[in-house]
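[Meeting: bench + compute handoff]

Bench side (C.D.) handed over the final construct sequence. Compute side (W.E.) agreed to return the predicted structure before the next meeting so the bench team could plan truncations. Sequence as handed over:
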Amino acid sequence: MPLFMRVSTTDWMEDTEIGRRLGSWDLESTIRLAKMLLDLGVDLLDRQAKKLLIGLVGEITGARQAQGLVHEVAGMANNDVIFVGRQFLRDGGWVLKVAEELGVEVAWPTQIARPQIQEQTIVSKM
């Protein structure tokens, strides 16, 4: 079973008096941690790290947006996975809407497949 870990990339304290005096959690700290996590068995971190999968989370609400986040842009790999939990809470049928918009065929959940089949039958009889 894959082991996922989510960390904040920064604590946003680096520009504060306390952060300058005591230090803060920053991007370099996250990169050092990510390199250690690979040896500890972590398979996925939500930020870029050598040899780990790259994941992204946060306000992913559109089909084209999601697609763009997992495809290459200007020859650079973006993310291996995206997390869309909040969008599924907002709209339980979101994956079906995304599939339709992107022209991807997906299996409908058994609980709602019957209305889909009936709708297709009605459309084909017209």
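W.E. noted at the follow-up: The radius of gyration is 20 Å. C.D. will use this when planning the next construct.
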